[in-house]
C-alpha cells in the first residue's frame, strides 16, 4: 500500500489537535447524539478524526493487503496519523454472495475473478505473505472481520459504510449504482444487506457507526430507477435505517443526502416534500443515533466564503443550536474530502477552507474522514494496481 505519510500528516496536522483524548476504556460505546454532539457511553463528547479504507472494489477486499499487513496499516492510521476512526467501505454484492453461498467468496476466487488467474495468484501470494493468518480459502467477510478485530485491538473505531451495490469503482450517474432501482441498486437486496451487516457486526468491538449509502445521485440513463426526489429518498432510507437499528441498536446511523452527498438540506431544514412528507428525527426509534454526513470535493474553489456558505446551508446549520432555519439539529461529519497530496494542494483555498469549516463548526470542531488511505487499488476501472 502506497502511504504518502509526510504530505498527509502535514495536511492533517491542523485537525488532529482538535480531537479530545478519551479517558474511558475503549470502545466506550454505544454512542448516541445530543444536540450537535456525538456522546460516548460514559458521557464524553466524541469527535471523529479518520480516514477512508476502501473495500468496495471489484475484489471486495480492503485495499492494500498485498503491500502490508492489516496490523501495520491500522498502526499507521492510529500511531503515525493519530486518527481514531476508519470509514471501512463495502459492497452489497459481498452480502448477496454470502447469502447465495457463492463459490467466489474466497481470497483465491475473488482475486482471480477480478484480476485474472495469473495476476490474481500473484496478488494472493503477496496478501498471504503479509497476512499469514489468512489462507487462500479465507472469505471476504472474514477479512473484514479481521480488520475490525485489529481496529479494536489498536483502539480505533469503525464506521462501516455501504458504498455501492455492485462492486465497482464509485461514482457516476451512469454506473448502475446511483439511485434506488438503478440497474444494480436493488432496494430489497440493499435493505437486506444493511440488516445483515448490522447483525453480523454485533461481534465487532470497534463498531461505532454504520452508513446507509454513499453518494446517492440521479441515475441519468436508467429506465428502472425511481424518481430522484426527496420523497423517494424518504420512502427508502427510513425502512433501511429501521432495519439497521432493529438488527443492532448499538451503531450510530449516518444519513447521506442527494447530489453525491453534497445536499442534506431536506433533512436539516424540516421542509415537506411534494407529497407532504418530512424527515422527522424525533419520531424514529433511532432518533438518538442520527448523524448527518456530507462530502465536498470543490478543489477548484477560489473563495472560501462560497464553500463555507454552501456547507453551512446544506449541512452544518444543523449544528447551530440557535439557528431556527435548520430545526433538525444533529452532529455533522464530513466523511469524504480530499486533494492531491503531492503537488502542494494542501495549501490551496479548498484545503484551507475545509480546515476552517471543520474547526469552526457551530459549537466546536466537527468530525471528518479524509479520502483516502490507499495509494493504489487492486483494480480500478480496468487498471490494475
In words, what does this structure look like?
33% of the residues lie in helices and 15% in strands. It is of the alpha/beta class. The chain has one domain (5-384): Alpha-Beta Barrel (TIM Barrel), CATH 3.20.20.80. An eight-stranded parallel beta barrel has the order 4-5-6-7-8-9-10-11. The chain has a three-stranded antiparallel beta sheet with strand order 1-2-3, with no helix packed on it. Strand 8, helix 9 (265-269) and strand 9 form a beta-alpha-beta unit. Helix 4 (107-115) crosses helix 5 (117-130), helix 7 packs parallel to helix 8 (230-247) and helix 10 crosses helix 11 (349-359). It is globular and about 60 Å long. The protein starts with a helix and ends with a strand. The model is unreliable at 1-10 (pLDDT under 50).
Topology overview:
Layout lengths: L4 H12 L15 E3 L2 E3 L5 E2 L2 E5 L16 H11 L4 E7 H8 L7 H9 L1 H14 L9 H14 L3 E8 L22 H14 L6 E5 L18 H18 L4 E4 L9 H5 L20 E7 L7 H11 L17 E6 L11 H11 L7 E4 L8 E2 L2 E2 L1
Parallel strand pairs: 4-5, 4-11, 5-6, 6-7, 7-8, 8-9, 9-10, 10-11
Antiparallel strand pairs: 1-2, 2-3, 12-13
InterPro entries: GH, Glyco_hydro_5
Keywords: Glycosidase, Hydrolase, Signal
Family: Belongs to the glycosyl hydrolase 5 (cellulase A) family.
Keywords:
385 residues; alpha/beta; eight-stranded parallel beta barrel; three-stranded antiparallel beta sheet; 11 helices; globular; disordered N terminus
Instruction: State which percent range the strand residues make up.
Output: 15-25%
Order of helices and strands: HEEEEHEHHHHEHEHEHEHEHEEE
Mean pLDDT: 95
CATH topology: TIM Barrel
Please provide the count of β strands. 13
Intertermini distance: 10 Å
CATH-level-2 architecture? Alpha-Beta Barrel
Q: Measured on Cα atoms, how large is the radius of gyration? A: 20 Å
The CATH homologous superfamily is named Glycosidases
Shape: globular
Keywords: Glycosidase, Hydrolase, Signal
Signal peptide: 1-24
Domain Glycoside hydrolase family: 68-348
Protein name: Glycoside hydrolase family 5 domain-containing protein
Amino acid at each position: 500500500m502506497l502511504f504518502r505519510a509526510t504530505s498527509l500528516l502535514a495536511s492533517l496536522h491542523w485537525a488532529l489537535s482538535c480531537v479530545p483524548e478519551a479517558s474511558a476504556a475503549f470502545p466506550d460505546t454505544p454512542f448516541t447524539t445530543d444536540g450537535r454532539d456525538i456522546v460516548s457511553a460514559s458521557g464524553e463528547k466524541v469527535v471523529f478524526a479518520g480516514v477512508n479504507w476502501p473495500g468496495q472494489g471489484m475484489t471486495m477486499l480492503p485495499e492494500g493487503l498485498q503491500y502490508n499487513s492489516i496490523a501495520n496499516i491500522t498502526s499507521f492510521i492510529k500511531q503515525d496519523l493519530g486518527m481514531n476512526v476508519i470509514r471501512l467501505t463495502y459492497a452489497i454484492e459481498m452480502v448477496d454472495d454470502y447469502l447465495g453461498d457463492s463459490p467466489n467468496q474466497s481470497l483465491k476466487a475473488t482475486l482471480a475473478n477480478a484480476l485474472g488467474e495469473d495476476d490474481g495468484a500473484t496478488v494472493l501470494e503477496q496478501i498471504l505473505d503479509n497476512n499469514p493468518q489468512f489462507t487462500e480459502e479465507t472469505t471476504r467477510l472474514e477479512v473484514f472481520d479481521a480488520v475490525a478485530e485489529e481496529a479494536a485491538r489498536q483502539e480505533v473505531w469503525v464506521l462501516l459504510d455501504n458504498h455501492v451495490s455492485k462492486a465497482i469503482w464509485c461514482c457516476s450517474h451512469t454506473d448502475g449504482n446511483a439511485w434506488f432501482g438503478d440497474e444494480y441498486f436493488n432496494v430489497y437486496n440493499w435493505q437486506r444487506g444493511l440488516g445483515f451487516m448490522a447483525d453480523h457486526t454485533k461481534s465487532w468491538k470497534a463498531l461505532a457507526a454504520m452508513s446507509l449509502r454513499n453518494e446517492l445521485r440521479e441515475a441519468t440513463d436508467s429506465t428502472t430507477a425511481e424518481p430522484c426526489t426527496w420523497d423517494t429518498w424518504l420512502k427508502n432510507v427510513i425502512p433501511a435505517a429501521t432495519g439497521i437499528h432493529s438488527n443492532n441498536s448499538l451503531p450510530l446511523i449516518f444519513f447521506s443526502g442527494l447530489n453525491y452527498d453534497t445536499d442534506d438540506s431536506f433533512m436539516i431544514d424540516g421542509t415537506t416534500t411534494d407529497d407532504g412528507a418530512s424527515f422527522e428525527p424525533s419520531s424514529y426509534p433511532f432518533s438518538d443515533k442520527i448523524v448527518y454526513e456530507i462530502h465536498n470535493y470543490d478543489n477548484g474553489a477560489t473563495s472560501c466564503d462560497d464553500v463555507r456558505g454552501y456547507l453551512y446551508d446544506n449541512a452544518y446549520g444543523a449544528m447551530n443550536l440557535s439557528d431556527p432555519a435548520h430545526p433538525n439539529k444533529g452532529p455533522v461529519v464530513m466523511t469524504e474530502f480530499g486533494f492531491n497530496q503531492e503537488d502542494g494542494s494542501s495549501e490551496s483555498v479548498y484545503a484551507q477552507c475545509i480546515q476552517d469549516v471543520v474547526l469552526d463548526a457551530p459549537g466546536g470542531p466537527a468530525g471528518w474522514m479524509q479520502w483516502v488511505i490507499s495509494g493504489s487499488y487492486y483494480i480500478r476501472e480496468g487498471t490494475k494496481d
